[in-house]
Amino acid sequence: MFPRYLMVPLLVMIAILLARLCDAGCGYEAIFNFGDSNSDTGGFWWAFPDAPPPNGMTYFKHPVGRASDGRLMIDFIAERIGVPYVSPYLKSIGSDYRHGANFATLASTALIPETSLFVSGLSPFALPIQLNQMKHFKAQVHELYSKGSSNLPPPDIFGKSLYTFYIGQNDFTSNLPKYGINGVRKTLPKVISQITSTIKELHGLGGRTFLVQNLAPIGCYPAFLVQLPHSENDIDEFGCLISYNKAVVEYNNMLHEALLQTRQQLLDAKVIYADSHKALLDLFQHPTSHGLKYGTLACCGNGGGSYNFNPQVFCGNNKIVNGQNVTASACSDPGKYVSWDGVHVTEAASKIIVDKILGGGFTDPPFEIRCS
């Protein structure tokens, strides 16, 4: 038995350790995710069935609704916390929501789109819709859990969960052809306002920890290097578009400041800015420093050359182009690439990014997850 004079210091040490474990992620029992294709684990596929191979080839060995050769960042975050991969909210068969739900869908925007999916290509499940789905989910948990539902979490789960956001890229890129880069800049404050207002509503539902990833350096993506108008002077030493990446940095700075203000308004919550942009930009610029080989070259695509991206034939599809049957197929070694299909990153890149943003130095305030 410990002497009394050692008990108080011991209890203090235990309290500090428990607090650190909680900060490290061990205290989170579920993930509720909001986003687009960068974190969609199959929601869009269940709503609009179409997920052709070679998607999923590396880890799952078959398509599972992820726009990648394998796991996404949200999957690696789940592994870090020690919970199963998060089921898509729209998955009607075989879902398990005991450890959260994923409301993200491919082509989603933070703002409600002005046109339909079949006109613009944007998902109808924008962030306000995802928030409404979350509200409905919580209501169903409170109604059905006590009745013995086996695939739902307990009603107290919402205060023990990590709420993750990776959205805004489609708001940025979808408007570029119509408004140009300067026009898009004017819409960005609305995007950020939608994200922060959603955090506040989720806080009202019981959420207390929010991890928000910033916007990726789209000027390094093969698809945008092929499709966006630019001059040779707009390409930096790493082969990325200077003007577009500069606009992304402006957005990220605004997002950072807005999240700081939100944190000051929600004093009992953790509102965390995750600089995945910094981590991904380093991969594009220095792939070999991270065990990769190719930065701005897509693994799954068509056309070869510097980017291997053909906007007429997307990854896993084939099409008659100029009288010829053209197929966008995958490379044999996606683990050497940053870009999977010209728009999304590979499993290898996703793991490196998560290791960085949850390993220290890439979040404000500091937020590390070291247990699983």
Describe the structure.
With 372 residues, the chain is an alpha/beta fold. The chain is built from eleven helices and ten strands. The chain has helices at 4-23, 43-47, 73-81, 117-120, 127-144, 169-174, 176-204, 222-227, 242-265, 276-285, 347-357, and strands at residues 30-35, 100-102, 161-166, 209-213, 270-274, 294-298, 318-321, 324-327, 337-339, 363-364. A six-stranded mixed sheet has the order 2-1-3-4-5-10, with helices on one face. It has a two-stranded parallel sheet with strand order 6-9. The radius of gyration is 21 Å and the shape is globular.
Largest sheet: 6 strands, mixed
Q: Element order, helices and strands?
A: HEHHEHHEHHEHHEHEEEEHE
* Number of H- or I-type helical stretches: 11
Secondary structure class reads alpha/beta
Would you identify the regions where 5 or more consecutive residues have pLDDT less than 50? 14-25
Radius of gyration: 21 Å
State the strand order across the main sheet: 2-1-3-4-5-10
Strand content: 5-15%
> How confident is the prediction overall: mean pLDDT?
92
Report, as a whole number of angstroms, the end-to-end distance.
32 Å
Number of strands: 10
Shape: globular
The helix content, as a percent range, equals 25-40%
